[in-house]
Specification:
two-stranded antiparallel sheet, 14 strands, 20% strand, globular, binds beta-D-ribofuranose, binds calcium ion, glycosidase, purine nucleosidase activity, Nucleoside hydrolase, IUNH
């Protein structure tokens, strides 16, 4: 089984990604590190613990960094872009893409007493085979770990990001939220030379789950299926309220990164291309830059996914979420 560490900011789609990783039974999850992003890091830790305990996974959870490596220190950078709203309050009701608290029992456990970055470095260096990192939030913990000890690169199989967008964006017109929130951290990883695969919005938007899909997940009769289905519906309702979609289908971004680690064939179009990220603080701040010129790809350490196989993804999700505790 592949050794992996998931880095999450749970988060509705992070919750589904975690459930898929845990219940696939195909991954050796060394631990889950938690970053800030969808909510403050403390809320993201609490949500992550709830999800892990829901399916009795017994996987250690580590709290990581509370803010980006340098973003708030750079004049002119605005993290609170109004386009990137995650919730809206109407008549006292909060419609949120990412609930502050998962609609499942409170967690009993606590995060482990060491910092996520310390765990990450130790776990990667001690592992007897190479470790795959799956960051599906702002990449602060991963960038910080690479800064603290660049030698971890030697024992990393690859880093599979959910982040970035090619000719589209959600945090800004051209930048996706995870990459926008800590572009320096992403750049450190890209420049490290380690193997990287990127699941941008292009791929996640090509495999949206519908309200009918959500009902199918709930119909599995398991705790995991119910939470995942509820999360699809929560996201759809919030997106509709915020006017960003018609409320009928939602991308479950982070689960696609896990799906790609589990099965290469889940991406129908993936290209080896040189990548960079804009950190200059202008209109393209946080934008994933993909070199589309021919002949520039052979030496690249990065592969970018453009299109996913929705049916394959959904089948994989259903198979996994049918496992674990029943309702
Ligand atoms: C990404 O941003 C977060 O809101 C989601 O959890 C996902 O990781 C999508 O842009
Ligand atoms: Ca996320």
């Amino acid at each position: 089984r592949k050794k992996v560490i998931l880095d999450v900011d749970t988060g509705s789609d992070d919750a589904v990604a975690l459930l898929l990783a845990i219940l696939s039974g195909k991954l050796d999850i060394l631990g889950v590190t938690v970053t800030w992003g969808n909510r403050c890091v403390e809320d993201c830790v609490a949500n992550t613990l709830q999800v892990v305990e829901l399916v009795d996974a017994g996987i250690p959870v580590y709290q990581g960094c509370p803010a980006a490596m340098v973003r708030e220190l750079t004049p002119g950078r605005v993290a609170n872009n109004p386009v990137n709203r995650i919730s809206i309050v109407e008549d006292g009701v909060e419609y949120s893409i990412h609930p502050a608290k998962m609609p499942i029992p409170d967690a009993v456990g606590k995060p482990e007493p060491i910092h996520a970055c310390t765990f990450l470095i130790d776990a990667v260096k001690k592992a007897d085979s190479k470790v795959t990192l799956i960051p599906v939030g702002p990449a602060t913990n991963i960038g910080m770990a690479f800064r603290m000890d660049p030698s971890i690169a030697e024992n990393i199989e690859e880093v599979v990001f959910m982040g970035g967008a090619v000719n589209m964006g959600n945090a800004t017109a051209v930048a996706e939220a995870n990459f926008f929130h800590d572009p320096e951290a992403v750049k450190i990883v890209l420049d490290s030379g380690v193997k990287v695969r990127i699941v941008p919005l292009n791929a996640t938007h090509s495999a949206m789950l519908t309200l009918e899909d959500a009902d199918e997940l709930i119909g599995l009769g398991t705790r995991a299926g119910k939470l995942a289905g509820d999360m699809v519906k929560t996201r759809a309702a919030a997106s509709l309220r915020m006017g960003s979609t018609d409320g009928k289908a939602e991308p479950i971004h982070d689960a696609l990164a896990v799906a790609w680690v589990l099965d290469e064939a889940v991406m129908l179009d993936a290209r080896r291309q040189k990548c960079d990220i804009d950190i200059s603080g202008g209109a393209a701040d946080g934008q994933l830059i993909v070199d589309q010129r021919r002949g520039n790809d052979e030496s690249s350490n990065t592969v970018v996914a453009y299109k996913a196989d929705k049916d394959r993804f959904f089948a994989m999700l259903k198979e996994a979420l049918a496992r674990g505790p029943k309702i």
